[in-house]
Queue: 4 jobs
Job 1
Amino acid sequence: MKINWKGVMPAVTTKFTAEDTLDLDMFTVNIKAQVDAGVHGIILGGTLGEASTLTNEEKRILIRETVKIVNGKIPVIINVAEQSTVAAKQAAKHAKEDGASGLMMLPPMRYKADSRETVTYFKSVANSTDLPIMIYNNPVDYGIEVTLDMFEELLNECSNIQAVKESTRDISNITRIRNRFGNRLAILSGVDTLALESMLMGADGWVAGLVCAFPAETVAIYALAKSGRTQEAIEIYRWFLPILELDINTKLVQNIKLAEVATGIGTENVREPRLPLIGTEREHVLAIIEKGIKTRPNLPDYKQYLD
């Protein structure tokens, strides 16, 4: 499936049972809620997906299950976050075999590669597959920035590198990318608390986190913003912001899973070493979520603006 890199693409959580196995029943409930809300793709195995705790076989199961659930309606994308080029190539190969539509790729993990090494890594993996690729550029959390010059080299040599998940936290980088590359590189905001601002500055979409619990509100913001109904989008976004800030936190997985419980499309089971929130930390997060639920806005018919 060709990927149109735009719209809302949830970085979905991985659902676990109390026995620490994949909870495919609740996973299906959540994915169907995302599709029903009008999301434009599903991204598996990111930070929110607790990828570092998943086995390779579990990742493959999640791809195959998601492909079945969405049934060709939207693309299924798997995150590739590996320590070696060999492992990344293998992950890309498995993704293709299991029916994924594309890849989201981080730079090499653990080792802080320099610019030459990072570009070589991306080229090597991209040239090993025909799947379309979105580069995840998050120097804040992962320590390696993919600069515009690096993107220039990658775009000139790898036609399947097509998009960036822009998570530098520098909103002006949207304009720099657009000025440099025009429409050669699609831009999706990767920071929930900068998503609307990014789209108003020209980003094509939003790789979202709290969409896992609030799919309709997230897609509504995108649809309204892109259809010129900016004030309506801002009003929903203002309501959403305190909840969105739960994503900018080291406990984002636990936070968002609590929100999924509140909206009935998830459980709070996490995989160790993560543990469920307790005490005042839990109370604080629940208070934010509960206030959001109580003041949840009535949404306009936003789907009429989706294309």
Job 2
Amino acid sequence: MDIVLTIILDGLIYASWLFIVALGLTLVFGVLRILNFAHGGLYALGAYSAAVAVPFFASWGLPPAFSLIAMFIAALAVAIVIAPLIERGLLRLFYGRDEVLILLVTYAVFLILEDATKMVFGVDPYYVFEPRNLLGNVEVGSLFYVGYDLALIGLAIVCGLGVWLGLHRTRIGKVTVAVINEPEVSAAMGVNIARIYLLAFGLGVFLAALGGAFTSPLISVQPGISVSVIVVSFAVVIIGGLGSIPGAAIGALIVGLARSFAVYEAPEAEIFIIYLVMVIVLIFRPEGLFTPVQARKI
């Protein structure tokens, strides 16, 4: 029984931060119709920024709990600085162009971010242990888990509900949904499409950086973390369906539980099982599990 509970909890913890990252990826695709390959680099930038921000603010003599706020500030700073540079300075020049061309552009941005992080932060690993010590250990049945790890599940739920409610219960969200469904009609009615695109892309960047920032206490922040994240994030959104928030949640759960099961029962298949699940979904439902049915245009 303990092994089943362990697999479930480990799967949920892995799925939580992965969902936050995939949520930003699927949001950008849903609004801008762009497969943002640079998303992994933005995740890494968030992790590096948090790894620098936490000890920086700690040197001011602030309470240890402020490290959580420092990670949030680091992610927000990445979004405020980087999102306008990429979206306004580059991506807007390619709107309406071939999807493969835009994918190659975002891949080029990914490579630039990868080298830029090495130049700015160096190649030595960073370790951020302070936030993970804040919540102590939590007893779950006969098992003990780090409270911070379990808190990531709550953070993922807050992010998912926040984005969903923002899209469906606020005026700017309803305008964004209108832009998603009918961009030409929205523009004709006076909607500032460029501003909506910038806001959506900025939120996507923030979610990628937030996932990286709050994952930094769990990992060694070093060059290369962006590669594995973007590949697995693509698997999540492909399984769940591009542009679907519930799909990103279910996809993250499937990937997290599948990986956790493999870690304990077949460690050599830890990565393979994720792509096996993705292939199975693509065979039987190529559009993903939660992609809404599209009306055929004549």
Job 3
Amino acid sequence: MRVLAAMSGGVDSAVAAARAVEAGHDVVGVHLALSRMPGTLRTGSRGCCTIEDSMDAQRAANVLGIPYYVWDFSERFKADVVDDFIAEYSAGRTPNPCMRCNERIKFAALLEKALALGFDAVCTGHYATIVTDAAGNRELHRASAWAKDQSYVLGVLTAEQLAHAYFPLGDTPSKQLVREEAGRRGLSVAQKPDSHDICFIPDGDTKGWLAEHVGEAPGDIVDRSGAVVGAHEGAHAYTVGQRRGLRLGTPAPDGRPRFVLEVRPKENTVVVGPKAALATAEIAGSRFTWAGMPPVDPATPFACEVQIRAHADPVPATAVVADGELVITPGQPLDGVAPGQTAVVYVGTRVLGQCTIDRTVSAIPVDA
């Protein structure tokens, strides 16, 4: 099998490529240059696609004895991930850029180019597994180690993309074993720290970055009744569930802290209220996809589990497709769900599908 190994410069993708070589596949390594922003070029950047990372990937490819290339996807990345991030925040939503990168770059743009060049699969260092059922359909499942499981961020993959995806690390019990394997293989990235934060915001200051790219627009902070209780310099700087940094001029009647419940960009207002009002009884999204075969009858409610963050615990739920939306009702209220987040639906260990959350229904009535 001809395999294109996406090599980020980290230990996971290096070991994944090594395992693909060891399995006897014809492997070519590729590093994606995703950003031309100056901040991502300096030493110490905490993202995942820096100049240093490309050199680490090059060294790993040399050790493995495979061809290596750097592909410039920066324009596509800016349009599909960075600009989308700005647009979502401007619309009062909370996006997940890693989901968009997997959806539109690694398993869309990269896979399209790989297939056009005659490759059979794209290999990555994600911790997830692919299972083929009796009928030959491929299913996406959680990794064997739940502590490192990354199936949530892969929930955007479609059946066609799964058909050409290859995750060699899915059955590995721990990240430490991957590091030890990298050391035995002579890979210099064996003890390289994991990347974190948003790769195109290398200093981690998301609020400052958004202020620079979206601009400041002073407005009101209101309670659930509409009464003004404070002011803000830009609604984009607030997310559902936020408590710190509100600087409210009017204390709550009960003296308890208040949290961001909603961001209304059209009105340029931020709505705050008690923590109890963050409880969400229903979520829904019209932008949904199935990871492999869909339910036999998605218009009939079916039992599942829903996960709304990469490291959140799954919650038992019921889901149904109605009026063009995937509507999910958790068995217990979810805390602090924001439009723009991704809800991934599981059945057992299998990723069934996902939706970008468009709307939420609070478990606490406004007049409560």
Job 4
Amino acid sequence: MRFKSIVVAAALGLATALAGCTTGGPLKVFTSDYGTVKDAGYQLPRIPISQVPRKYHRQIVSYETKEKPGTIIVDTKDKYLYLVQENGKAMRYGIGVGREGFEWSGTARIAMKREWPTWTPPAAMIGRQPELAKWRGGMPPGLSNPLGARALYLFDSSGDTGYRLHGTPEWRSIGKAMSSGCIRLMNQDIIDLYNRTENGAKVIVKR
């Protein structure tokens, strides 16, 4: 009887542990990782992270999915980006998304990764904002560049989608819909995501 009791207790403990893996709650939060960063000759300023809702701070969460580790899943509704990890976990980042009329969803792959990328506004954007015409040939990298410290370029079966996962100096935009369709992360977060992501990684963008 004693052996049976031990087995039952162990089974209950395992069930409790497994149930905990489906809660979606934070397992670790990286609130302290938003300080000043020196990178490739640039100095990214500290983000006043206390002014960003805690749910958008980088954190490891429980996340059940059939997608393989290394897959990126973007939840544009709740403004989260998940990098799938092993054992039912994911690294979750807060994001800013496209405003109404500029949303995009679908499945793509990361075809290129760039550090301190050049930003070239599309012709349609220049048509809406003629003042951007001066950057028709490309805006040099820098702290004010809209692509921030890193960019991951999304391609599908038709080629370049024109959409990117990229950094932004506008940390106040995280959690909001105000971009021209691209998915933006705080610069400290896009550097972290860039370092964890491989070329060819699958990206699923959900509305």
